[in-house]
Amino acid sequence: MLYRFTDAGTAAQIAAGGKAVTESLPPGSAVGEQSWLTVKKTAERDTALYVPFLIAFGVLGLVMSVLIVGNVVASAVGTGTRRIGVLKAVGFTPAQVVRAYVGQALIPAAVGTALGVLAGHLLAVPVLAETEEVYGASSLAIAPWVDLAVIAGVLFLVAATAWASAWRAGRLRTVDALAVGRTASAGRGRWAARLAGRLPLPQPVALGLARPFARPARALAMGTAILFGSVAVTFTVGMGASLGQVMEARAHDAADVVVPAPLPHFGPQGPGPGPEKQPRANPAAVAAAVEAAAGTGKHYSAAKVRAAVSGLTGTIDVIAFTGEASWGGYTMVSGRWIDKPGEAVVPTPFLAATGTRIGDTVTLNGLAEPVTVRIVGEVLDPRKGGMQVFTDASTLTAAHPDLTETSHHIAVTSGTDVTGYVDALNRDLAPLGATARAGGLDAGSDMVVTLNALSTILTLMLVAVAALGVLNGVLLDTRERVREIGVHKALGMTPRQTVAMVLTSVVVTGLVAGALGVPLGVALHGWVLPAMGDSVGLRLPGSVIAVYHGAELLPLALGGLLIATLGALLPAGWAARTRTATALRTE
Hints:
Helices cover 59% and strands 10% of the residues. The protein is of the alpha+beta class. It has a 6-stranded mixed beta barrel. A hairpin with a 6-residue loop joins β2 (296-309) and β3 (316-322).
């Protein structure tokens, strides 16, 4: 039953409302309750995991947007330097020239911003619709201030970049502006051209390799865009590997086969037949059936009981193991696994909430008698808010001899068919009231799927933006060199050699940017992942963070070259298709 209270903003108000509801019901009909504040806290804790992740991608996206917009606008103004000289020759003042170019840049920027805001709203529709369905909300929409901030931010960025570029050109003398706009500087990069010419390489390749040194500022702009794209790819690869390990540790389901614990009884008014009609599975009998089954390798059982700990509100789960359970997917952050009775391992939030550390003792109350355990390890486990204690079953023998909520976890021997094993075991377990199933990650892996999908989409967007930055730079460079390309073609350069020359002009930039982007991506991963753990009160072990291997880093470093090549393909094709006579006539 769901109840909505007039005042429900605090725990005290929820408690008062819950008491009024309980008093209005028949005695014994209310067996438990849950506050919406508890659900809200859980949802916020899960959402907090996304915040550092999204901030990292958001910063990457903003920086790349600034670079691309600045590069495009600055290049557009740079190519119009001769026109600026003409305007000044006919009487335009520097201020008028700047205003004219700022206005000219703002027109396409306004159109692009409007389309971007519209596309953002359309992409948000399915996400907000799912949120409405999950939380039972209605009319969720993007806040108007977000639209205003995006529009104002983009237009200000374009205006500032155009003003800076046009102001520099507007302050040139009229004669200098006409001269600079008419001819490119021929002195830059000569040493690189001479050095490349001495290498045992085809002439088109040598010409392409020397090109970045002729336009160092443009090459730097392209390299920065490639750098951030390479960082995004490296970061995403590491994030996917780390999240997979986190969810494996969270599920604790390394077993091939699991016999789940029986559902608890809810009393005479609970669902299903009463306890006198529904036999309870005997943990000892189930364990004996598992041990006797053909194909059983390793096996342990886990029983759950509730206990109280001084300093904590409510009860915690105590997981008591029979058998060696360290192979079951329990990842240690620090310390060691339990070796003998009286020892326990706990998650990070438990240590923080109780103010304890490894080596301290805690007392479990609420059982037949208090049980004192010594903490010997810190385990990675975000379930139940981290309020769990893992110990040996013999630790609770005197305080709780009847462990009924027991699950069994089995690793089959090598070569055993899991499906056949489960079918055979279920025939033995049917008379005992238990059922086996194949092991594996539970529904908690949905978060990994969500984060992996989100990171992949964001990475592809950043790679596309980086490739567009390369496209813009190479296209401007190719159009400026069109007469030079015509001369090369007149001297015998084939279309295929033209493509090779244009593509190799971004090779050095792509390799350098990729080589720098990989360590930066690794460093970003090493900063964001612990921050994600801290946001939900978890310390992550080194095995979750150190997921990069030497064999992966070389392909990731070549990712910069791939981004550069993708961005240069279209200008290379355009240059190859340009007719020689047309290129020679082009000024």
